[in-house]
Amino acid sequence: MARYVVKRVILAVITMFLVCFITFFAMNAIPGGPFNGEKAKSPAVMKVLNERYGLDKPVGVQFVNYMKNIMHGDFGVSLKNGRDIAETIRTRFAVSAKLGIMAIIVALIFGVVLGCTAALNRNKWQDHLIIFFVTLFTAMPSFVMASFLLLIFCIQLKIVPVWSTANPSYVLPVIALSLSPMANITRLTKTSMLDALGQDYVRTAKAKGVKPVKVIFVHTLRNALIPVITYVGPLTAAILTGSLVVENIFTIGGLGSAFVDSITNRDYTLIMGVTIFLAMIMIIMNLVSDLVYKLVDPRIRLE
Asked: Can you give the pTM of this predicted structure?
C-alpha cells in the first residue's frame, strides 16, 4: 500500500508539472495580453506594466520564475485587480465546494437507491420507468437542465427564489448538477447489482436460507459498489471543478465564474492558479477513490 501511494504521489507531481507547463505556454502563445483592453494604453504605460509583473522577460524565464514562486506557495496577484490569487481561490471555492458536495450526496443516494430498485425489479414497470428517466437525464446537459429549472420554478411558478448572496438557494443548482451524475450512478449500480446477484456466493447464501435483506446489503451491494466508487472519485472532481456553466446561469459567485472571467480577461496569474488548483483536486480524488477500493474489498491489491 505504502509503495503504491509513493508511486502515485510521484506521478501526481509529474502530472502537475506537465499541467503547469502546457497551460503556461499555451496561454502565452495566444495573441494579445492581460493589458490589452478596449481603452488603448500608451507604449510607455504598457512597458511599465509588463516590467512590474515580469511580462517583459522571455516566456521561458517567466515560467521558471513562476514555478519558483509556486514552490514557495506564492500564486501571485491578479493582473487585473491586484487581489491575492490564493485568497480568491479560497473564498470562491468555498461556494463551489458547498454546491458540489450537496450535488454529489444527492446523486449518490438517489443513484444507488434507484439502481438497486431497477436491478431487483428487472423488466418490471419500476425498471422501465427508472431507465426512461435515466436516459433522459443522461442525454440532457446540465446547462440545459439549469436553464429549464430556472425558467419554470423561478420565473414562471416563482416557487424557488433566484440566487442572491443575501438569501442563497441551492435547491435548483444542486438538482441541475446532480441529475446527470445520478443517472450514471443508477446505470452502474443496476449493472453491478445484476452481475452480483448472478454470482455463486449469492445463490449459496439464498440456498442456506439467508434473509433477502442480508443477501442484498451484505453480500450483493458491497461488491456492486466497487464500480460506483470508481466513478465517484473522478465525478467528485468533475462536479467541484466543472460547475462553471451552472454557476453562471444561476449567477453563483463560485470558482467556476472566476475561472471564466480570468480567461475572458486574459488574467494569466488567475488562470494558472485556478488551473493548478483544479488539477490538484482531480489528482487527489482519483488517488482517494483508488484507496477506497481497498476498504470496500480487501481482496483488491494495489500495485
From this structure: 0.76
Cβ within 8 Å of residue 108, ≥6 positions away: 185, 228, 232
- What is the three-class DSSP state of 95? helix
Q: In this structure, are residues 255 and 274 in contact, taking their beta carbons and an 8 Å threshold?
A: yes
pLDDT, one tens digit for every residue, the chain (303 residues): 677 778 878 888 888 889 889 988 888 887 766 776 656 666 777 777 777 777 778 888 888 888 888 888 888 888 877 788 888 888 888 888 888 888 889 999 999 889 888 888 888 898 899 999 989 888 888 878 888 888 888 888 878 777 666 677 788 888 888 898 899 899 888 888 888 777 777 777 777 777 777 677 766 777 777 778 777 777 777 777 667 778 777 877 778 777 877 887 788 888 888 888 888 888 887 777 777 766 666 555 655
Cell of 44: 510607455
Name every residue whose Cβ is closer than 8 Å to that of residue 17 and which is 6 or more positions away in sequence. none
Q: Which amino acid is at 213?
A: V
* Distance, CA of 6 to CA of 9 (rounded, Å): 5
